[in-house]
Write a structure and sequence with these properties.
Layout (H helix, E strand, L loop, with lengths): L1 H30 L3 H36 L6 H15 L6 H15 L1 H34 L5 H15 L1 H43 L6 H124 L1
Helix pairs in contact: 1-2, 1-7, 2-5, 2-7, 3-7, 4-7, 5-6, 5-7
């Protein structure tokens, strides 16, 4: 704040100096009848006072805005206008564009002190108008002397040198006014930039979050949509995988059934062929065994007949021997009995 006050005090001092130089230049111009130059100096004095006052009022307004933006809660015309604009955007269903809002506000602030900025740009040109008017008067006095053959060199130089007294007065005033207004205008520009920066900071961290909560922001909505989409995609994939699995299982079951039937048919055919082959083999083996065993059986049967005849003969002989032995035993017993009775 101290630097700001120093700038404006220095600017005011330069304006006062330009007024003093302007008044003296105006008196000189009026004394020589230079109405164009006199008008230029008068305009410069008016620009000095009017531009300084307008830039000062603009600087005071920006100072109020800075003070309002620094309070808690913040306030001020800039913040109220920004809040109204954001509420209108929200009511229309739109989303704020920070760069566009900042550019619009900066353009409005630039237009508020446009006249003061214009004065800074034109003061030197107005001073040149007075300078050119003084030069024209000087050259007007030199032209008759150049056409006079009796004029000496000193007399020819005296007229232009005398005109230089009034020639550059307007330019000096213009330069002084430009220095003063440019100094205070620079301070105004710095203050405006600071106010706009604080406004944007309050907008981003206070106004927009209050009107567009974080849950309603584009980023948060995008995250929610992506989460919902991911969940839906996962469920869709699960359903698709289940459907694919069921279809694959059904197809696999049908294919396995078909393969099982085909294998069973092949096994049955193989079994039938194997049974027929086995049966044929068995029959052949039986025939071969029968052919081999027939002689053996016949020989065995003959030997059995022979054995049976031998056994019968032996039995007969044994019976006869037993009968003879019994008869002899009976006779012996009879003889013994008779002897005993005697």
């Amino acid at each position: 704040m101290g630097v700001t006050r120093l700038r404006w005090l220095l600017g005011g001092a330069i304006v006062a100096l330009s007024l003093v130089v302007g008044v003296r230049a105006l008196v000189t111009y009026l004394g020589h009848g230079l109405w164009v130059a006199s008008s230029a100096v008068a305009v410069l004095c008016t620009i000095a006072v009017g531009g300084f006052v307008q830039l000062g009022l603009a600087r005071r307004r920006v100072a109020r805005e800075l003070a309002g933006l620094a309070t808690e809660p913040p306030q001020g015309a800039l913040l109220d206008a920004r809040r109204t604009h954001l509420e209108a955007i929200r009511a229309s269903g739109g989303a704020p564009e920070r760069e566009a809002l900042a550019a619009a506000t900066a353009a409005e602030e630039t237009g508020r002190a446009y006249l003061g900025r214009y004065f800074v740009a034109v003061t030197v040109l107005v001073g040149l108008v007075g300078t050119f008017a003084g030069l024209m008067e000087t050259l007007r006095g030199v032209a008759p002397l150049l056409s006079d053959d009796a004029s000496s060199t000193l007399r020819l130089l005296a007229a232009p040198l005398g005109g230089l007294e009034v020639t550059f007065g307007a330019s000096i005033v213009g330069v002084l006014v430009t220095l003063a207004l440019a100094l205070v205008q620079g301070d105004l520009v710095l203050a405006e930039e600071l106010a706009l920066a604080r406004l944007e900071e309050r907008t981003m961290h206070l106004l927009i979050p209050s009107l567009w909560p974080p849950s309603e922001g584009a980023g948060e909505r995008a995250v929610r949509e992506l989460s919902a989409l991911r969940l839906e995609l996962r469920e869709s994939l699960e359903r698709s995988m289940r459907g694919v699995g069921e279809r694959v299982a059904a197809a696999s079951g049908r294919e396995l059934s078909r393969v099982a039937r085909e294998v069973e048919r092949l096994l049955d055919a193989s079994a039938a062929k194997s049974a027929a082959s086995v049966e044929a083999g068995l029959r052949g083996a039986v025939d071969e065994a029968r052919a081999l065993l027939a002689p053996l059986v016949a020989d065995g049967a003959a030997r059995l007949h022979e054995l049976r005849d031998g056994i019968a003969a032996a039995a007969t002989n044994a019976g006869e021997a037993i009968a003879g032995a019994a008869a002899r035993s009976t006779a012996a017993l009879s003889t013994t009995a008779e002897r005993a009775s005697d």
